[in-house]
Amino acid sequence: MPVPATAIWSASDGLVNGLGCHVAGEPGCRSVEVVSSHYGVQTRLVVLRAVAAALAGNRGR
């Protein structure tokens, strides 16, 4: 990708296969695996923190 990206995905999603959500080792792409259902992802604190870190430029990784 021409810009940095963060893939937040869950192997326990139940609707979307997490392996299709990110490419391991892709330069400029950060992958964050969380434990969450597909619909529960909006309310999980770990997800909200990952989104905040991505928006802050991944400072403090």
Index terms:
61 residues; alpha+beta; two-stranded parallel ribbon; 1 helix; flat
Give a quick precis of the structure.
By secondary structure, the chain is an alpha+beta fold. It is built from one helix and two strands, in the order ββα.
Compute the number of helices: 1
Write the H/E string, N to C.
EEH
- Report the biggest beta sheet as strand number plus sense, adding barrel if it closes: 2 strands, parallel
Instruction: Work out the oligomeric state of the chains in this entry.
Output: single chain
Distance, first to last CA: 20 Å
Average pLDDT, rounded to a whole number, is: 80
Please characterize this protein's 3D structure.
There is one protein chain. This protein has a two-stranded parallel sheet. The chain has one helix at about 45-55; strands at about 5-10, 30-35. The mean pLDDT is about 80. It is flat and about 30 Å long. The protein is of the alpha+beta class and about 60 residues long. About 5% of the residues are buried. The two termini are about 20 Å apart.
SSE layout and pairing:
Elements: E1 5-9, E2 29-33, H1 45-55
Parallel strand pairs: 1-2
